[in-house]
Amino acid sequence: MIKKFIKRIFGGKEAETIPVGPVTLGPQEHRINPQLVSPNAVRVTQTLQDAGFKAFVVGGAVRDLLLGVKPKDFDVATNATPEQVKRLFRRAFIIGRRFQIVHVVFGQEIIEVTTFRGASAESAPKDEHGRVLRDNTFGEQHEDAVRRDFTINAMYYDPASQVVLDYHDGIADIRNKTLRVIGVPEARYREDPVRLLRVVRFAAKLGFSIDPATREPIQVMAPLINNVPAARVFDEMLKLLMSGHALACLQQLRKEGLHHGLLPLLDVVLEQPLGEKFVTLALAGTDQRVREGKGVSPGFLFAALLWHQVLEKWHAYQAAGEFPIPALHLAADDVLNTQTEKLALQRKITTDMRDIWAMQPRFERRSGKSPYKLIEHPRMRAGYDFLMLRCASGELDQELGDWWTDFIAADGPEREVLLARKPKGDGDAAPAKKRRRRAGRNKRKGPAEEGAPTENPT
Ligand code: ATP
Ligand code: MG
Hints:
With 458 residues, the protein is of the alpha+beta class. The protein starts with a helix and ends with a helix. It has two domains: 2-184, Beta Polymerase, domain 2 (2-Layer Sandwich), CATH 3.30.460; 267-437, cca-adding enzyme, domain 2, CATH 1.10.3090.10. The protein has 26 helices and ten strands. The chain has helices at 2-10, 12-15, 27-30, 39-50, 60-66, 82-88, 141-146, 170-176, 185-191, 194-206, 212-215, 218-221, 230-241, 246-255, 266-271, 273-291, 298-305, 307-319, 324-343, 347-359, 370-375, 380-392, 398-409, 412-420, 429-445, 448-455; strands spanning 23-25, 55-58, 75-78, 92-95, 101-106, 109-115, 155-158, 163-166, 178-179, 209-210. The strands form two sheets. An eight-stranded mixed beta sheet has the order 1-8-7-2-3-6-5-4. Strands 9-10 form a two-stranded parallel ribbon. It binds adenosine-5'-triphosphate and magnesium ion.
């Protein structure tokens, strides 16, 4: 505020010698609806301010509030150190080793509290490509603002005074629906190539256009992502896929030439006619669930993204003489091995993926006890949803999906009727084929049916 007055009084010349202060916007200007602010975020900023610290809601939450959208989570920035923050709250946990943040927990909601970071990019240790390796100094608020990625993500909101502090003309970019990197885009991408993915995510999610200077280096710099630790790429990729705008994000990724090297096989998958339809349907379904506030499982999502690669390899192993079930497991191994290198898919996720894939051939057995066993599977719902996608994409006959829909809904006697019904195109030879498959599987590994997830430890 004071700096802004000095700037006003002395004009631009003097202002160059002092750090430029933020533009201050009151409630009449920013028109944030206080109802959209989480009461817990208000509690956190209030408690910190009562203890004599600065505290603001920051980042994505302010951006969303300015857009009139209810933020999905709230981050708070403060000049209190993590230790000082922790002492003020009953349920507060310091997270992270390098740059510590504090999670203040209120039931289901976590407010993430971060101490202002210093602008250390110049002196920070970097790898040979210029990626900042350690960036863990505390700093002043204006420094914290500089090191954020986009102008629209660098605003601070004080719920008590209802004032927004805007350091980089974020409000103008919100109004023009423009995504603009703070500082020199090329340098900012080099420091942290994950920002390349973030551009795509925010542009697609918010429906913003990318400022030309922000867009221009993206293609050339895309290979720098290969240099980022897989776990970070995975985190950003997951945010992208769970954003409720995954389909738009992937289309944007392709447009910006960023799909290569992220999911190494995605491009190939999308170029196969059936694969593209399948992935599109899967992402559209995911987006709809996210927008309806329903849960989405990363395992299901990645299982869908990689399914056509699995299918291709599954067929290839069978063509080479492997039995169907072991062939499917071998295909899953191949695909997961390639992907885990790049994406650091966590164990829980790969286990879910294997489960969903391994269930698929079981849906084709519609006689005896098999359907009853399958229906008891802990991940039956995911497996069934996956089957429905396969039908909807044209990979399988819709009749199979409908049969399972009926079977799930049916009571005991109705199920017997369904089991007795001979599937279309599934002639008398089918049971014999199934017996053969089962014999082959038992010979190799024992009953895959019950042990699919543990059968092939990664
Ligand atoms: P969303 O609503 O999708 O979570 P967000 O803006 O909150 O969007 P986060 O990934 O949660 O995105 O990051 C929170 C804030 O931290 C951002 O708004 C930005 O200010 C800052 N930030 C996050 N990642 C980076 C990065 N790689 N470089 C610079 N600033 C970042
Ligand atoms: Mg966020």
